[in-house]
Specification:
Lyase, Ornithine Decarboxylase, Chain A, domain 1; two-stranded parallel sheet
């Protein structure tokens, strides 16, 4: 463990939180968290905490690290259109169901979650398309210029890494749109 830490607290420390927000490879090019290295560092930190903060409860929150890869978001393609040489696949759900995948209300750097056309995963014919939701806002984009199998009405877009920050972190009911169904398998 790098650095030398002074273990001084103004009063008894009741809880020592080792952190949350462990990395999840949401986007193309992201790497998996090196769990072994993090574990080694945490082991050393816990040993020091037990020595210097013997009354503290040691906490580690792994929420999204555990659940993000366990969930997918599925929406039905209800329309297909081409405008100015750009293909748009309109889905029956979007940022109102999965705000994080849409870029969280217009973040500066927008990247796509991993996605496929669920019933055409092995589709030989490919296209670059935007998958958009049903809302009347240009922010309602699930996939921006994504490489997917050629799709149309009746097909399904599947967004991976959707087990965290999905429906409960989205503007559900936005513009009176229907809520998504949550299914546990």
């Amino acid at each position: 463990m790098q650095g030398d830490y002074t273990w001084i607290a103004p009063g008894p420390v009741r809880r020592f939180n080792l952190g949350g927000g462990f990395g999840v490879p949401y986007f193309q090019g992201d790497k998996e968290l090196d769990v072994a290295s993090v574990g080694e560092a945490m082991h050393a930190l816990v040993a020091k905490a037990e020595q210097h903060l013997p009354e503290a409860e040691i906490i580690l929150e792994l929420g999204r690290f555990l659940v993000a890869p366990a969930g997918i978001y599925v929406a039905k393609i209800i329309d297909r259109k081409v405008s100015h040489d750009v293909t748009y696949l309109v889905a029956d759900g979007g940022m109102n169901h999965h705000l994080a995948a849409s870029g969280n209300l217009g973040q500066l750097i927008r990247r796509n979650y991993p996605a496929v056309i669920g019933n055409r995963v092995q589709g030989e014919q490919r296209e670059v398309a935007n998958v958009v939701g049903p809302l009347c806002t240009p922010l309602d984009i699930l996939l921006n210029q994504g490489d997917v199998a050629v799709a149309g009405p009746g097909d399904y877009i599947v967004i991976f890494q959707s087990g965290a920050y999905g429906l409960t972190a989205s503007p559900n009911g936005f513009l009176s749109q229907k809520s998504a169904a949550e299914v546990l398998v």
